[in-house]
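[job 4471] stage=fold_predict status=RUNNING
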Amino acid sequence: MWSVYIIECNDGTLYTGISIDVKKRVLIHNKGKGAKYTKNRLPVKLMYEKEIGNRSDASKEEYRIKKLSRINKLALFV
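[job 4471] inference complete, writing structure tokens
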């Protein structure tokens, strides 16, 4: 089952991604190996996770979320 997730970096910025195992992916981010964006913004904290189904649908949801304003992203998990 694919999921879309949002993590908050130590500088307060948000990063959106997809994964089959979100908890493992967050651990990878926190080891500095997750994504170039998060590598210098450690530690990161999981703020939002939504199971989607297949990879295609998860990618579409990731794209939709990435286009949202910061306020609208924050509204997803407040």
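[job 4471] summary: The mean pLDDT is 95.
[job 4471] exit 0
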